[in-house]
């Protein structure tokens, strides 16, 4: 017996968080009975329907690494009709992005239909490192550097921002290129970090996700992760 939201996530239908939302909205039924509460346990013989369509519990697990271009939403679909990262992957399987990159942020993003894999990478306790290259307005002052070394408080929670390098300073154009590695996954976290220092982010790229990078992929290109890579991410 397993929790319903876990079974839905493991099937590759969606993430566990979204599965919980589907249940709360009354869109999931088990053996003809609509389930609205979390934590209900099901077994392999139970018939699960989502929006009236039976859940396929044995879908092949897939793992993609995409070099996200600008102008794409990190979502499965967008109510405004904008292009999504899923549109760039040639597959008939129902996949979804792990975490988010903003509309105009580029770089590495992972997509999968494996709920356990997605939850492992997004869970804060696993401390998965993400590295970004941020082009910011202005030049970091000595005071800014001290604050970054000490950690920046965003929404009453401190972010460890001590792992950073100033890659370039353009005094004439009054901007800087800063590489920063964090384990946070909150929305707009990099922009909020520099905004707290009174520096707007002009351009942002995620260059690394743990040990992965997109150096061999052009913007909009993707590849499947190897079994070795998936196992290594699971072990972190």
> Residue-averaged pLDDT, rounded?
93
CATH class type of the largest domain: Alpha Beta
Give me the count of strands: 17
Taken in chain order, the helices and strands follow as: EHHEEEEEEEEHEHEEEEHEEEH
Oligomer: single chain
Domain tally: 3
Computed Rg: 20 Å
Brief account:
The chain is of the alpha+beta class.
Based on the model shown, name its key terms.
3 domains; Alpha-Beta Plaits; 236 residues; nine-stranded mixed beta sheet; 17 strands; single chain; four-stranded antiparallel beta sheet
What does this 3D model show about the protein?
β8 and β9 (106-112) form a beta hairpin. The strands form 4 sheets. Strands 7, 8, 9, 10, 13, 14, 15, 16 and 17 form a 9-stranded mixed sheet that branches. It is built from 6 helices and 17 strands. Helix content is 21%, strand content 31%. It folds into 3 domains: 2-54, RNA-binding S4 domain (Structural Genomics Hypothetical 15.5 Kd Protein In mrcA-pckA Intergenic Region, Chain A, Roll); 63-124 and 215-234, 2-Layer Sandwich (Alpha-Beta Plaits); 129-209, Alpha-Beta Plaits (2-Layer Sandwich). The mean pLDDT is 93.
Fold topology:
Elements: E1 2-3, H1 4-10, H2 16-24, E2 28-30, E3 33-35, E4 41-42, E5 48-50, E6 53-54, E7 63-68, E8 96-97, E9 106-112, H3 115-122, E10 130-137, H4 142-150, E11 152-154, E12 157-159, E13 164-170, E14 175-182, H5 189-196, E15 201-209, E16 212-213, E17 222-224, H6 227-234
Helix pairs in contact: 1-2
């Amino acid at each position: 017996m397993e929790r319903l939201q876990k079974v839905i996530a493991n099937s590759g239908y969606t993430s566990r968080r979204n599965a919980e939302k589907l249940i709360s909205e009354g869109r999931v039924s088990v053996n003809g009975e609509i389930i609205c509460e979390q934590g209900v346990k099901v077994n392999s013989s139970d018939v699960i329907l989502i929006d009236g369509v039976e859940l396929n519990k044995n879908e092949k697990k897939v793992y993609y690494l995409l070099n996200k271009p600008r102008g794409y939403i990190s979502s499965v679909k967008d109510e405004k009709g904008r292009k999504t990262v899923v549109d760039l992957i040639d597959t008939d399987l129902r996949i979804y992005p792990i975490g988010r990159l903003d509309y105009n942020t580029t770089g590495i993003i992972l997509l999968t239909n494996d709920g356990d894999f997605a939850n492992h990478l997004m869970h804060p306790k696993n401390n998965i490192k993400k590295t970004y290259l941020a082009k910011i307005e202005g030049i970091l002052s000595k005071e800014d550097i001290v604050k970054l070394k000490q950690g920046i408080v965003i929404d009453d929670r401190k972010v460890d921002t001590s792992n950073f390098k100033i890659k370039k300073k353009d005094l004439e154009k009054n901007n800087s290129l800063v590489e920063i590695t964090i384990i946070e996954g909150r929305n707009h976290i990099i922009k909020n970090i520099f905004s707290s220092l009174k520096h707007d982010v002009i351009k942002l790229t995620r260059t690394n996700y743990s040990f992965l990078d997109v150096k061999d992929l052009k913007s909009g290109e993707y590849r499947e992760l190897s079994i070795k890579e998936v196992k290594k991410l699971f072990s972190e």
